[in-house]
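Handout, section 4.2: multi-component inputs.
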Amino acid sequence: MSNDAGIIIVGAGECGARAALSLRETGYPHAITLIGDEAHLPYERPPLSKQMLLAEATPQAPTVLNDIMLGERAIRHIGSASASAIDATGKQVILSDGRELAYDRLLLTTGAAPRRLPNVRANARILYLRTINDALALRPWISADMHVAVLGGGFIGLEVAASARNRGARVTVIESQERILKRGVPEQIAETISSLHRRNGVEVKCGLTVSEIDADDRRVSISLADGTEVTADVLVVGIGAQPRTELAAQAGIAVDNGISVNERLETSVADIYAAGDCCSFPHPLYGGRRLRLEAWRNAQDQGILAAANLAGAARGYDAVPYFWSDQFDHTLQIAGLVDEGRTVVRRDLGDGAFILFHLDDGQRLVAASGVGYGNRVARDMKLSEMLIARQVVPPLDALAADANLKSLLPRAA
Amino acid sequence: MTTWIDACAAEEIDQEDVVRFDHAGRTFAIYRSPDDEYFATDGLCTHEKIHLAEGLVMDDTIECPKHNGRFSYKTGEARGAPVCVGLKTYPVKLEGDRVMIGIGA
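Output:
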């Protein structure tokens, strides 16, 4: 069997770029082609809602792969290109310009796309945030003389709100649920974040659905279900993301809330793998529960694991889901799955920082969530992540008190 | 020429832990290993300039509190994504109960 056609990676975000890098680090000798629909070289997305918006001068997002790295590692990057079809039998990817590229193995890292507002006409004052171009388009709108409306009190919306407020803009966040961060974040943590925003002058309006959005070349007007109206210079929409599965589905690959993969990140079609935001996978720590994660760390880790498996390993993915968000001078971190917990133990770390430990019916630690100034919760969150990975059943008093979490960790002698 | 700077008392650092030390506009991280040896590196992660002293020390590794980049604090070697540039290390010696770090002139 010849491997000469090499590996094609469709999607040049964090996950695809990490996979390409990792393939070379592990000594993969054949061709690697990385196809991305953006013109830019692969870059990190987390700064787009933070440093990219906060910087005075037009900033650059940190690149994951630059020209020198691509050259040294003989990774072929094809930018501004989209894959229009996969011929799984002939083992080819067909690009929208008609080019046909042969592969030995294929990795799909197509990511996710922002969920769009239905029935709202495109307008320069209605913006979404996913790409570097989106961030650059948003920058001019977040200054002291602007009123920024944010639709959606999730992470993207709240990070944009914090950045815009830091730049002096007037900011209104509109959330249809009764509180912000309803998905996957405990109420105590959401309350801390909510009061942080209010303290910094963000207007947070919850429990209000939108009845109409009307934009022209002077303003955006958002009519709410309670009859009130928010009129702003710009509307940033952060109402979730959807996995980009069209290419996979069209090739006959199984899709189940994302491109469906097994624990080794293999799709239902031979020699085709998927990783990152676009895929759903069974998690062994949670009884094989199928998850789809939209998180930087998951993209990175699955990219690295997919690379190993593409090159011949057969390892399963078992990393603890992990997420962080920076808003104003606070950081929130979540490890594990909060909704797997039945009881909660709280540990206070001073200056308002705290961690919640989430335990299942058998008192096993299944998640931890923390919030606080700066990196105050980071160390205990890291240890919590390790305790979750090792499926530790910790003594409750040790969690609540000031004991060193390190002492709860089973360690090799 | 190496200049030795008094950084902290030896017992100020717990076993298998790290503290931050600022000196002359620079910031350092000083470590005590599980077997009671002391080490020093630059204080900021090479990825996004986060203070490493808020990170977690496990064995001979320091993990950045922000994006989980890992380094050997003994050699400065970068140990995996997202960090690819190593940390600068500095010589350390104990004088009595004081930890001294050596920085270039």
